[in-house]
Amino acid sequence: MNDDELKKLWQQQPLGDPPLGAQLMTAMQKQTSQLRRSLLWRDVRELAACVIVGVIFGIYYFTVHAPVARLGALITVAGAIFIAWKTLHARRATPTAKPDATVVESLRAELHSVRTQSQLLRSVAWWYLLPLAIGVIIFVWGMPITNLVFYFVFNISFTLFSLWLDVKIYRLNQCAVSEQLLPIERQLESLLRSAETGEPVDETHVASLRPIVLSMEAADKVKPVEFKVDFWQLALYGVPGIVGIWFFLMVGLTVGSGGWKTKEPAVETFPPAVRAEETNRYSVVAQKLVDLLNTGDYAAVQKLYDANMTTVFPPKETADFYTRLARGFGKIDNIEGLTGKGFRGWTAFRLHCQRGELTMSLALDADDKIAGIYFKPVPLTYSEWPVPPIEWLVPRIFSWRHLVWLPAFFLAGLLYSWLLQKTTERAVGISALGIHLHKGQNLILWDEIKEVRPFKLLNIRSLWLIRESGEKTLMRWTGLERHSDLKTAVESFAPADHPIRKHLSLLRRN
Amino acid sequence: MNSTPADERKFLELVDENRNRILRVCRAYSWNSADRDDLYQEILFQIWRALPGLKEDAYANTWLYRVAINTAISFVRKRSSGSDRVVQFENAELTRTIESQQAAEVSTDERMVNLYNAIYQLDPLERALITLFLEDFTYAQIAEATGISANHVGVMLHRAKKKLSGLMKDAPK
Prior knowledge:
The complex is a heterodimer. By secondary structure, chain A is α+β, with helices and mostly antiparallel strands. Chain A has helices spanning 3-11, 22-63, 67-92, 103-122, 124-142, 148-197, 203-206, 231-257, 259-262, 272-276, 281-295, 298-303, 307-312, 315-329, 390-397, 400-403, 406-423, 483-493; strands at 214-215, 225-226, 332-341, 347-353, 356-364, 370-378, 429-430, 434-437, 442-445, 449-457, 460-467, 472-477. In chain A, strands 2-7-8-9 form a 4-stranded antiparallel sheet. The radius of gyration of chain B is 17 Å and the shape is globular.
């Protein structure tokens, strides 16, 4: 065929009749809004994690008093801001080529974008992992925990886990660079070099661009059986998960209300040691002050102040302050003292309140009038966390006020499972050609599999598919797969004497 | 983009006039009907997005091919880089079977099947050059559409045509 015949054949080939007019315009408008939405969501997705981390550690910065922990929180917040900036900046610096750019311009833009992405992943340790890891580790080590054994065991474990996780993430990123980005980079370089110099492209880099690549839906003959996950299999995990959230929420609300503590007698629990030290003028004044605070008689409290204190702390401020204190900590159940030196070396007492503990530092003048007073919350150690009695807790957790929310959480669990089912794609497909793994990106032909070995870990049953070269690939059959479907597919498609058939017994019916 | 009725009219006219050309590009770069439909949609969408950049109607033909070829090469790259569900074969016999299936899906004319079989074995740049050549573009127009210099277009097109002709001769009868 000469050139003209070839052109004629090409230009006169029969073609289909795709839609035009209003239908087409609607499709274009829809695609435009989809593009806008997806760009917006991409930004939101990338920034959401940074915002969450920033907000959480920002709150810690303002609420935690330990300076080292605050420094850690500050580093973490700065790290999150830096990561957000770096991600957005890298993307803004590599805009995609315009749709009407030439092929060469478009290849250049794509190459630039892939190189930037590669660079980002290669240096992920410096701009992503380390700022967060350093911040969080300093924060954890800086948190005041009085139980030293717990402090060291928890912090060392946490640090080791963080470092292990960071190393794992770093390796995954380097793997993505070498396995995904580098081949694309070489492919683009090869195409660009060819376009710029007229030399032939390097076949080793562009071989994958030939359409020998076959879509899984391409032909009925090779269409693999794919495995959907049953709704109930997901609901089995999803519903208890969401109902579990309800349960722990209700436990938290019940315990947090502190109602169980109000049942305890307050007056009787005063330590006799304090009463025995009537002669101690500090103890007497402190006890008197506590009694007045518990009765809410702030005018009487005012009378305990010396002249200077009365000026600095007038009646309205006194009443406001103690009202806020009572709202935050509740009634003072117990006073423990003297506990040593407190604020500015004043005499300290520990106040056991309904909702936490306070250190009260007190200074008296020669006439036993209060010349200075300072309250500081005492952080709880883990052994001091209050545990309510079980017979009190259970009926309250399952009270009708709490149970009324249960159906809503149950329905939310079902909805969550349904969404999961709709969005879950199983990794395994089986066809007449072989086994399709990694969402169809990797096909192992039946002939290539020379040996099959089972691999069991708890209830997860998988198979090692071993090629003649010894290369092993794990075929995962998770507990979520419908094993009966897998079994049927293997029986239908695997060659009669294939080694995989020996392991069909691994597939239980479920 | 915020479209006006005039934009929409211009777009529809452009697509209507060039529909067959776009469809032929789609066939050269996709390997089954589902992908062909996806690529067709994608090319139209890119034309729609780029339409404000089309200054003079006299260049519409080259401009449109530029968008189409660009989109098609990008489409093939995305599909083959594993972002979509595709499988790569290294089995020669299987590859031949699949390629002939793909070509047969496009046409029942044996000559067309051979032509597509051969086109499918070219790399994306060669395929762009051959497609434009078959559409009767001059070297200068091809150079303008692809951004490759006119001299290089001549060399590369000569090589691609030779390869195409060899592949068509070797095609199983």
